[in-house]
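Kindly go through the following sequence and its backbone structure tokens. Advise at your convenience whether the structure tokens fit the sequence:

___
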Amino acid sequence: MLLLHHYGLKFYDRVTGHHILDRLDELTHTQWLSPEELQALQRRRLRSLLAYAYMYVPYYQRVFDEVGFRADALESDPESFWKIPPVSKATMREHPEEFITTEAARREGISPSATSGSTGEPFVFWEDHHFQDYANANTFRHHTWCGWQPGQLRVYLWGIPFGVTFKRRVWDQVRDLTWGRTFVNAFNLSDETMSRLAALIRRRRPKLLHGYVSALHLFARFVRENGCNDVKVPAVYTSAEVLYPHQREYIEETFDCEVFNRYATHEVGGIACECEKHTGMHISTETNYVEILHEDNVPVKDGEAGNVVVTSLTNYVFPFIRYRFEDIGCMSTRPCPCGRGQPMLGAIEGRHNDMFKTRDGRTVLWGIDRPFKTMQGVRKFQFVQKSLDYVVVRVVKDGPMSQAQRAEVEQTLKIALGDHVKIDFEFPDEIPVGRSGKYRYTICEIADEGGHDAQQP
């Protein structure tokens, strides 16, 4: 069966023009290089990206000239990289045409992508096979750290957005079949959905379960409350949200598994992941250059917390150079005994978003933001569930919002929550952050029924 899936992956690569298996072989080798060798590899790739950005990307041509930066200066003066001001999602979203490569050959193979919406700010960017292959191969590599091999079943408790076309669903199913993975929709969790997931795990015994922290924690609670003592899986990979110690312990005890925490984003792919030693997260130095910065954009000392800033080394068509996330993290000075040469990332404090509840007992996570991902004239948005029957949608506009756009948002919410739900729109000049200082794009105000305060430790 493993051999069959291996040929399935080779067939997928050949038909689609991808090189995922080649990239996986590469990353499997480079992870065992020494720290010095990996640093040298990363430095070469960083110089190559920066030189390309100056030659072909209008925004970086202008900024590099303004600050007096040249890629060839990195060899003698690595700190010259700090001259480049970090870029925010807001800047890239407002002027996307300035970040797309002007090289005709590369533009032929690019495709649009959009972030998951966890910041409440819609953002479309561009990518090509080169970036996608490294991102997918890096996920494969991280999964091998629990003992998984390509071809063994992986189950994802992940987002399947509302309103996806039939053609897209068919294509996704073909791809997932060749990749040896299956999805259970985490956007719309009900007892029936979780029962199906439990039955799937019993029947097919997957090597790993990968999902959102909140969805996995909710599924673990369902398993315990329903006495599903035979639902076990060797490894669980958590991602997309902060993993708290009590959640890790609860999931491990429930499934008799090891939990591997992974830090990744849609824009730059896998940033870091725990290995089998669980001493921190190994940074994917071959694909990303990670900095932890003070507010003045100067690097913090090792072990100090600061803003996470990442440069993707594999996306040339829409370069993310010193891209600032809304996350706080720190480097770990604790060496990992596994022998891999990558530096270690310590704790990450990411975003917190609430789960919504429905009158028929379902839990809705993400996916309700889908209409906003590519909608013009929207700068920021937020969903507030006031009751099981009432949701307020707050929109900070960059332009007019048409009735058709509002109808699309309403339809998505009603598909997710029920036709009975009343939906009102508000159009403030700004949406403030919460008490924690973090921006949340979903807020549930239903007391003791899944609201944010009830979920936090």
Confidence is low (pLDDT under 50) at residues 448-457. The chain has two domains: 2-349, 356-455. The two ends are 43 Å apart (CA to CA). The chain is about 35% helix and 25% strand.
